[in-house]
């Protein structure tokens, strides 16, 4: 019923690949991808495991709608215990790799143990084998993809790999596919690196069958695609401007974190946003943005393809970066721009290319640079620590240099590769890390968007916007408008967004569809593909079940109520300018109400009643 019906288990220690039937009882309870992959993970891994030790496991998982004709059905997730946080990690990626795995006949791949030498996994339909990757070790993700396609003698081979950052155990290393799509957060790439796992190369020719009701699936997916096409966000805004359309909007809202959250509005926002990407350059009369691009099966096409100004200092002597490549999206542009106070669009593009090429998360990297720049501005660190580099806030040169140093694992780049929490703790200023559970904030200030503040504090994988995007409601009025400056009603709103997100992440579809769709639009697509028992109510329950399962794993790993918090800056330092001027995050009021809405006790633990109701 839309699932492939089997999983691939790879024992890296023994060098074996084994096929297993998918647990269909779990599939009907957890759906797929994030939910089902996490179910396998929590059943098999001790919550106390060392994230970088051989007993940790790492799972690549697709959803039941991955690889189908449903719009945006190209997603996959990587699930593990994250080294950046020590919490459950689930990082989602688009592109074409997820659909290729599904079309090869696999729902997920589970890696366990550790290889004695670098290896990669080759999957061609039913055939899977581990192969030597010694010649790939030290290569970038771009080089790895090119080499593996040549080895396979098939340009349609899809590659998911780590770069040098993953090999060097950068705490926020990611896993990259299709050159610039990534399972980006929480350090999943470092877990692969710790296991000497370089890549998975997949070629699938089977397609995706077993649709429960093919005619109804064709009808309902066509109907939902039209909704996406006709909606002003998914049909016009995202295709034209990408997520970068948010830069000036969030800045005007007064919720754009700037210079490590010292400010909440960036005077240079208009120089690094979507509009700036479309402007013609004086040097060559060409725009930074070349075109948009879609992932597998996507009718939105929000991806960016950009080309740098070849006269820019970062690339003037590096012709390998002169061609068009993956362009800036909002979160990366914010992290590399406003977070450290840099307003040089070309510098942001260069740093973003380095993140893609060598596989590390631009959000955590940029936010860590922002923290390091505040340490430098205040004299806590000096050129002695940075290797002679002026790390003052706003330095485009320092941003580009540090990106390359993190990629190579050299000098102060090694310290930046620890993430902001470990960096700030090392220099005696833990309060300057703008993170939750060790993961850096994305591009929204929790004082100007109160719902996002609560979302960050309670996110199971550390600070994250993709675990409950209340920005939709607080800024855009989707599906209902709420006041971003008030705490009233936010606990219930956050819970609803978190549960809905978990359901979408488990389906195999992209969250960006939720600018237009609700779970009520997802349900008939899942039902037609998987079975009539999947209704609006059952999907909402699945989302809630997934969220509570993740929470329970974290609690057993040692996380408590004290970890559901925000940095002192957001709790004690009022916003200086804009609509949110004078506000701090109202977490103290919201958190108890949130726990009550979740059915947890006062310490944030699942009650027996909640466990029973959700079948946990």
Kindly describe this structure.
By secondary structure, the protein is α+β, with helices and mostly antiparallel strands. It has three domains: 6-203, Aldehyde Ferredoxin Oxidoreductase,  A, domain 1; 258-433, Aldehyde Ferredoxin Oxidoreductase Protein, subunit A, domain 2; 444-614, Orthogonal Bundle (Aldehyde Ferredoxin Oxidoreductase Protein, subunit A, domain 3). Helix 13 (345-358) packs parallel to helix 16. The longest helix is centred in the C-terminal third of the chain and has 22 residues, at 536-557. The chain is globular, with a radius of gyration of 22 Å. The model has no long low-confidence stretch (mean pLDDT 97).
Which key terms come to mind for this protein?
alpha+beta, Aldehyde Ferredoxin Oxidoreductase,  A, domain 1, Aldehyde Ferredoxin Oxidoreductase Protein, subunit A, domain 2, 6-stranded mixed beta sheet, 26 helices, globular
SSE topology sketch:
Blueprint: E1 6-11, E2 16-21, H1 24-30, H2 33-44, E3 58-62, E4 76-81, E5 88-93, H3 97-103, E6 108-112, E7 119-124, E8 127-132, H4 141-152, E9 158-161, H5 164-167, E10 175-177, E11 181-183, H6 188-194, E12 197-203, H7 214-230, H8 233-241, H9 246-253, H10 269-272, H11 274-278, E13 289-293, E14 303-306, E15 325-326, H12 330-336, H13 345-358, H14 362-377, H15 383-386, H16 396-408, H17 412-416, H18 420-426, E16 435-436, E17 439-440, H19 450-458, H20 471-474, H21 490-507, H22 519-530, H23 536-557, H24 568-572, H25 587-598, H26 608-614
Parallel strand pairs: 1-6, 7-12
Antiparallel strand pairs: 1-2, 3-4, 3-6, 4-5, 7-8, 9-10, 9-12, 10-11, 13-14, 14-15, 16-17
Helix pairs in contact: 1-2, 2-21, 2-23, 7-8, 7-22, 12-14, 13-16, 14-18, 19-21, 21-23, 21-25
């Amino acid at each position: 019923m839309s699932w492939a019906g089997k999983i691939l288990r790879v024992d890296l220690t023994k060098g074996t690949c084994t096929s297993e039937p998918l647990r269909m009882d779990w599939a009907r309870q957890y759906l797929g991808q994030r939910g089902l992959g996490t179910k396998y993970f929590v059943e098999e891994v001790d919550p106390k495991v060392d994230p970088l030790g051989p007993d940790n496991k790492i799972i690549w998982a697709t959803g039941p709608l991955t690889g189908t004709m449903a719009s945006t059905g190209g997603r996959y997730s990587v699930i593990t215990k994250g080294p950046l946080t020590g919490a459950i990690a689930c990082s989602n990626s688009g592109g074409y790799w997820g659909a290729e795995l599904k079309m090869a006949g696999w729902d997920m791949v589970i890696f366990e143990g550790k290889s004695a030498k670098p290896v990669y996994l080759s999957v061609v339909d039913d055939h899977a084998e581990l192969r030597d990757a010694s010649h790939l070790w030290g290569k970038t993700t771009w080089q790895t993809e090119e080499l593996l396609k040549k080895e396979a003698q098939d340009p349609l081979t899809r590659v998911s790999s780590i770069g040098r950052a993953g090999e060097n155990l950068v705490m926020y290393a990611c896993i990259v596919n299709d050159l610039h799509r990534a399972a980006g957060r929480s350090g999943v790439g470092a877990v692969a690196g710790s296991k000497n796992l370089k890549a998975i190369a997949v070629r699938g020719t089977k397609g995706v069958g077993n649709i429960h009701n093919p005619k109804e699936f064709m009808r309902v997916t066509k109907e939902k695609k039209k909704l996406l096409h006709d909606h002003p966000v998914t049909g016009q805004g995202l295709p034209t401007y990408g997520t970068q359309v948010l830069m000036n909007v969030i800045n005007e809202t007064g919720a754009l974190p700037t210079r490590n959250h010292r400010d909440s509005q960036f005077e240079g926002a208009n120089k690094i946003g979507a509009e700036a990407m479309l402007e013609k350059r004086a040097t060559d009369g060409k725009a930074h943005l070349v075109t948009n691009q879609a992932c597998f099966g996507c009718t939105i096409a929000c991806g960016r393809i950009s080309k740098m100004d070849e006269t820019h200092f970062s690339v003037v002597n590096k012709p390998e970066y002169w061609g068009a490549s993956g362009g800036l999206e909002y979160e990366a542009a914010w992290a590399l721009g406003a977070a450290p106070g840099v307003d040089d669009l070309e510098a942001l593009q260069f740093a973003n290319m380095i993140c893609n090429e060598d596989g590390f998360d631009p959000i955590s990297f940029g936010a860590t640079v922002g923290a390091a720049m505040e340490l430098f501005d205040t004299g806590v660190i000096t050129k002695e620590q940075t290797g002679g580099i002026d790390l003052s806030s706003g330095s485009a040169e320092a941003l580009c240099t540090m990106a390359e140093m993190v990629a190579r694992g050299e000098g102060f780049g090694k310290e930046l590769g620890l993430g902001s929490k470990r960096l700030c703790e090392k220099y005696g200023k833990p309060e300057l890390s703008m993170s939750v559970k060790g993961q850096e904030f994305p591009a929204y200030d929790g004082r100007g968007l109160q719902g996002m503040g609560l979302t960050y504090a309670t996110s199971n994988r550390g600070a994250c916007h993709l675990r409950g995007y209340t920005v939709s409601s607080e800024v855009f009025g989707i599906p209902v408008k709420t006041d971003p400056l008030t705490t009233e009603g936010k606990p219930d709103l956050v819970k609803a967004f978190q549960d809905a997100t978990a359901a979408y992440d488990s389906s195999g579809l992209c969250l960006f569809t939720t600018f237009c769709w609700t779970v009520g639009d997802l349900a008939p697509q899942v039902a037609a593909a998987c079975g009539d028992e999947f209704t609006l109510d059952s999907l909402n329950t699945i989302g809630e079940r997934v969220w509570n399962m993740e929470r329970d794993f974290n609690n057993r790993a040692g996380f408590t109520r004290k970890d559901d918090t925000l940095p002192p800056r957001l709790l004690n330092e009022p916003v200086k300018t804009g609509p949110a001027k004078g506000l701090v995050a109202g977490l103290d009021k919201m958190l108890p109400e949130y726990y009550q809405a979740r059915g947890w006790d006062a310490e944030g633990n699942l009650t027996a009643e909640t466990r029973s109701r959700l079948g946990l």
